[in-house]
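DM from R.C. (forwarded with permission)

"hey, sorry to bug you on a friday — could you get me a structure for this? deadline for the figure draft is monday and I only need the backbone to look sensible"
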Amino acid sequence: MTAKVSLRGVTKAFGDNVVLRDFSLDVSAGEVVSLIGASGSGKTTVLRCINLLEQVDDGAVLLDGDEVSAVGRDPNPVRRRVGIVFQSFNLFPHMSVVRNITLALTEVLGQSGEMARDRASELLARFGLAEKADVYPDQLSGGQQQRVAIIRALAMKPEVLLLDEITSALDPELVGEVLDVVRELKGSGITMLIATHEMAFAREISDRVCFLHGGTIAEVGTPAELFHCSECMEDFMNHCNSDGVLGVGSLREVVHVATSNGAVHQVHIRDQIHGDMTSLTPSAPCTPRHVFVG
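My reply, with the result:
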């Protein structure tokens, strides 16, 4: 069976920084795949290459078996089929909520204003924002703005939805309402690729999880396989590289950093999924500012 989305040997660099290296992934129709890994591992770049916001340097992006990443090919037909939602919402501040949603429907799909507004109203009601149709983005909470951004993408009836760290700009108490939207979407059969640091959520929502490291997929499997049986994930959760940067991984919360003479000698962390407490000891010298969650 032909994959809905395929990346075949994709390489992408920004100057001397090679972000993706011979990256390959097949995603089936209706599948939910989460991309996890440290900041800079290539998660966002994968999504931007699929949506053709970035031109690949080598390799190919395919949609239903058709190569869509060829140089010179019009990206707009692909973008009508592949929606993307960014971490920073990107709503038009001078337009009402309903106009943010209907703009692409009228200008790109050529729908009448009445038809577009009916579609927007349907989605706003579905996701609990019916009363916000005529307000402006600055009158909404961050969680509401992100829900509107998701609705705007869904209004186009995309075959594939790309979600790029959609909770990272939100206050913690607002994260749940956005994740609830994604939970509902999973049951609708839409194909989703999700770049996320929400490990418990990735474990719950995903059919497969891909752990990215160094611009490629270091581990891939079901959530049960990856979170319980992966040596590479353990490295991610307890890693000190040659630059003296200790990464404790997004599965864990830093509770206390113990120092001596300005250097870290122990990091106390809590497992966000199971609640267990443990300690990490850097294998190379590092300072508190070099301890990161990613």
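R.C.: lifesaver. Residues 239-251, 287-294 have pLDDT under 50 and may be disordered.
me: no worries. The longest strand covers residues 17-27.
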